[in-house]
Design a protein that fits this description.
Blueprint lengths: L10 H5 L9 H11 L1 H15 L29 H30 L5 H11 L3
Helix pairs in contact: 2-3, 2-4, 3-4
Amino acid sequence: MAPAPAQPAKLEDIISYVPETYFSDDELATIRAHFGGPEGAKLLRLVKKALLPSVFDPELPTENIAQDAFMGLVDFKNVPSEEAKALAMGLQYIVKGIAGSLINLKHIANVKADSPADIAARMEKDSTK
């Protein structure tokens, strides 16, 4: 009887762990299809405009300045001074979170997915023969 052909060990074979990903393969394909390339950049700018309007955006109509990055939603004149800083920082964290998510979408959309041949070539190159 011939011995079974040797196959490289996988992480899940060694430690019985399969890394989880937040986005499914279908979701990643959707992100790449809609947010990748020049048309995806347009869509990303549109989403940013909708979620994070800013008075620093020269395209923002004057009528929409009150919507500026959540700050227009708070009447700071009526907020006690000891609460104003915490409120402003909380709003800032929300804006940073949304902006970070948009950056993540852009990154995911423009990173080329590895094909099985690419993975095999990289594994061959990385081997310590």
